[in-house]
């Protein structure tokens, strides 16, 4: 593309008053070789936009706008897919955080113009990769409540769903429920189980193809073109789908190893599932002798919140016990329920249900439930525990004990469910407790495999309404991914990004770093170790680009030379001018918003810094640091997301990888005769904006102590 | 087994049912032991049981502990707990119902007696005569012999109050319209009797 640049400076929001705009225009036209430089006091207004559009009509195809952050007005400054828009952040990162009409502030603005112009040299419009024969069907694995709901939602939105269920009947765990906990106002009354009706609706829906007694044997390809092999009772079937929803749910925890509860030893100690079966008969009787029950103890947290067994809260059991206590009273008004609990977690609207149960006269006994002992003497079950509120021992004779056993995700088992043909393994990566990992805060449904969404109790322990909501969310995500792929666009977090990595294979050394480090399994490998990119799986983070020692991976609008040129475009003053320079590589997801927020709050920090946004710190190529250092820049600061078990990185482990790579950079620095302290990495989340000035100023002060970069002037 | 059965009576809903039948008694069921009442209560440090614990004992059916508790008598009806209770329990109304119940049960707690003497004293003139109030309370509660050491113990409080005129020797003037107050009380007593309650005062 032959670039015809139109350079615009917005003088609104205090930019015009704080900077010498005429001088900046000179930098843009003389040094940056922009054919023209125009200024306007209100570019994002109607008149300002017309001002830009007039130039576009005259043939400008590359618009540089120096004004506010690229996170602002991105929709306003969208001139269609044929026009490159490059934004220079004069507002949040220059005039709002540095003193007005100051020599150094002016230099900062000038540098940003040089950097943008250098970036434009190698920047191209992305050409989307649109695979052939994109399928918009959605595979739903698991025919329980979540799977049924997801399939119905997909079908009702006008897409075709393929439902695979291992058992011979649809419905799953909740199908056997006698009643369902309240799901609508006033949240106090039991409701009939909705699962059988859902099973019927799925069976009747022409847009849903159901495979029962079937398992997924293999999933090949990527979003938009997953080829699924389904093993059925009779043989096998093939389906091409665009997205996959994993809804295999959880299995009830087996309480047999917890000997103190006597499960398996005493027939009248049962699990929640067994209680549902008893209630379904219309009258709750003891399994041992068939006598009706009067006094029933419900023991919460059986296995859950126990370091030895399930360290997490299983989320549904408290409400299920309340529900069972409610129908116990409904079936026999004389019956008395005793709930032994640690913390009753009837969250949200279920508070009303909990209150209702108290109103029904249910006795709640608070204590450490894992210390409860259940014994039987003379045919009488006795619950021995402690009431921590009354501070006394409890010895309660009961007729029946119901153990609220927690849930174990199906992904925690040995057997494979999805059988993905990915280099990175056949199943979804797991971070904690056997649940497939996701970015819990920002993208709860996303797994580390693009186009594969986990929903329901396989993703996290949850109760009925939460699973329904989850299934609906995952269905929408699945639709989003098939639609995005059919346009060649990325899904979350870089939604709509049309770029994708290109490999210059002639120079590949088969080192396998890209295939290993890709957090999303987007790069398979052939027998020789050559990367086989699967562009539809890619989330465009650039981790492969940062990993490649040969620097053969690049995007049309994001590449190693491009960022390197930006770093090299910074004007580094001579040593005697005592104007050090700090280069900041900031993650676009959290660090850049934090920097913008600091600007919005008018927080002041050192104007030695020059900020380059990166897609993810994982895309950081060490050559940039070497470039910056040999250019004479005094220090490099990397701002990325928190990593570790409770990571915040939107691309899972980008900031962690950057940290690992950085630990190796000290060697390079030593070779250059530089202190390794000159390059630092900091974790910043969007909420840490108030710490930005501290982080930058401390780093600047440290560099001051170290003295100027000896490479200056070489 | 007998021990177990004794324990079972601990959680016997018998007393709880009796309590729930009291005026506003039913609200005691709804307590979820969050403890907000206890942390907000101005009289908490004088109470033997915070309101939440009292409700827990009701739920557990511990009649004896509830009857012995001083808590309802120390409630000043300031409303703070009531407005803060997340379960919306009108705690002071429950306390009022409980006080009435305790009187019916013939509670011998000194604070119960104090309440009775206070009401009598106040109704005589429409104002409280502190000297008569303290004298008659200590004499009735502890007897003439038992009252002496208490009076001596309280000297450091009583003497300055006497000297400063905060404990007048003469009874205060009657309020205007005392007969109207008496009429109200009489009417209220009649209504209570008609509805089958005993005379609370």
Describe the fold and architecture.
The complex is a heterodimer of chains A (714) and B (201). With 714 residues, chain A is of the alpha/beta class. Helices cover 29% and strands 22% of the residues of chain A. Chain A has 18 helices and 34 strands. In chain A, the strands form 11 sheets. A 5-stranded parallel beta sheet of chain A has the order 9-6-5-13-26, covered by helices on one side. A 5-stranded parallel beta sheet of chain A has the order 15-22-16-17-18. A 4-stranded parallel beta sheet of chain A has the order 2-1-3-4, with helices on both faces. Chain A is elongated, with a radius of gyration of 31 Å. Mean pLDDT of chain B is 86; it is low at 1-6. The N and C termini of chain B lie far apart (45 Å). Chain B is mainly alpha-helical and 201 residues long. Chain B has helices spanning 2-10, 13-20, 36-40, 51-59, 63-68, 71-74, 80-84, 91-104, 110-125, 130-153, 155-163, 178-194. At the A-B interface, α10, β18, β20 and β21 of A face α1, α2 and α4 of B.
In oligomeric terms, what are we looking at? heterodimer
| Radius of gyration of chain B over all CA atoms, rounded | 20 Å
Low-confidence stretches of chain A: none
Overall geometric form of chain B: globular
How far apart, in Å, are the first and last alpha carbons of chain A?
Answer: 35 Å
Q: How many distinct helices of chain B? A: 12
Spans of chain B of 5+ residues with little confidence (pLDDT < 50)?
A: 1-6
Gross morphology of chain A: elongated
Describe the biggest sheet of chain B? none
Provide the structure class of chain A. Answer: alpha/beta
Nutshell version of this structure?
The complex is a heterodimer of chains A (714) and B (201). Chain A is an alpha/beta fold and 714 residues long.
